[in-house]
Amino acid sequence: MQGTILIIDDEDRLRQLLARLLSLEGYQVLEANNARNGLRVLEQEEIHLVISDVKLPDKNGIELSAQIKQLYPSTEIIVLTAFGTIADGVTAIKNGAFDYITKGDDNDRIIPLVSRAIEKAQLQFRIRQLEEKVSKRYGFESIIGESKTIRQAVDLARKVAVTDTTVLLTGETGTGKEVFAQAIHQASARRSGAFVAVNCSALGKEILESELFGHRAGAFTGASRDKKGLFEEAHKGTIFLDEIGEMALDLQAKLLRVLETHEFMRVGDTKPTRVDVRVVAATNRDLEQEATAGHFRLDLFYRLSVFRIELPSLRDRRDDIPALAEQFARQSALKIGKRDVKLSPEFEQKLRQHDWKGNIRELKNVIERAVILADGPELTPDLLPYDLLYAGKSVSNGPVYDLAQVEENHIRYILHHTNGNKTEAARLLNIGLTTLYRKITEYQIN
């Protein structure tokens, strides 16, 4: 099926003839004899193209075209009239119609015109579907968790997203700051623009300056041609500056100028470049304390922290751990072709007990590892890393003084390290294989 067309015309014979003609071309054709019925069809069906007469019993077709484009922007419209005028044609196009043709005089144009209109509409429908997928993947709906702390952070982010205000995301490493930045971008009026992320700690000062602001050819050794910076790439969109606290002081001054004037100088340039960019910054440092110590510009801190959102650590939202783990397990299983992966209650309990100093990033890595190691569909505690599995196993919650306990823990660790290979474990422990088997039995190691 090449596309779906709705013909709105009160002349039954002409409407049916046109419907028959377009059906023979492979299109699915629906009919309506007035504007009201046409709008009802549009509510119920996905229509790529509307072909509407100008003179309808209940509405002017040119006014109808404006209403349809407002309600269904991806749908294209061709306006038909028995007595065409230039003024009507201009108005129809301004209202969003694809074209305006006269009945009888333009019969040879109908099929090619319909083909082009359908092609444009289908492209717009595909773009809309992709945007919906992107929004679902990177929007606020992708942020998992129902704990009070994460919901408060999401509510704040939703409110600021619709503005153009600069946002500062704070919190420990691995708490999902880039996920929040993406969601803010997707919920903003800039979502059709680019989202550009840069880690300020990953590059040296000179390279970071060139990456952010670009350079002119000959500005330094190796600069053989002009290069656009990331601020230019993010024009009309959002730039996410991660680990902003690691940025050199002289670069901070240039960033402050961009925030205040929306202008910057490329490296080696003499004229300023103007951009329209929203800035979302993130840090795991206390920037106010860094500014007091002279490591961060206080004026930049105030400019960045117009709207600050603190993201909670994973240990402060333990009730969200099972849901996050299930999501990561599904994603990891999909990547390696596994199905129906689930978490055992004991596995969940171990996850809840861990402190997760690496937060969500650490949890994701642990789950991915467990999914890879699992032989069956269920994730069990023995698939967890040794330090997580035996964390806190001590005498009276203090240091382990019992020699047997130390020996048992060490044997478990080596067996875990060798993935259960007892011969290799005995070699690493520098004991005989028979001795290892005896120890395994003694300590009831599974």
- The proportion of strand residues reads 5-15%
- Major pleated sheet: 5 strands, parallel
Give the strand order of the largest sheet, numbering strands 1, 2, ... along the chain.
Answer: 2-1-3-4-5
Question: What's the mean pLDDT score?
Answer: 87
Indicate the multimeric state.
Answer: single chain
Low-confidence stretches: 394-398
Q: Tell me the number of helical segments per DSSP (H or I, 4 or more residues long).
A: 19
Rg over C-alpha atoms, rounded to the nearest angstrom: 32 Å
**Number of DSSP strand runs:** 14
**Portion of residues in helices?**
40-55%
Distance between the termini: 60 Å
Shape: extended
InterPro entries: AAA+_ATPase (IPR003593), AAA_lid_NorR (IPR058031), CheY-like_superfamily (IPR011006), Homeodomain-like_sf (IPR009057), HTH_Fis (IPR002197), P-loop_NTPase (IPR027417), Sig_transdc_resp-reg_receiver (IPR001789), Sigma_54_int (IPR002078)
Protein name: Sigma-54-dependent transcriptional regulator
Keywords: ATP-binding, Nucleotide-binding, Phosphoprotein, Transcription, Transcription regulation
Organism: Larkinella insperata
Quick structural summary:
With 446 residues, the chain is an alpha/beta fold. The protein contains 19 helices and 14 strands.
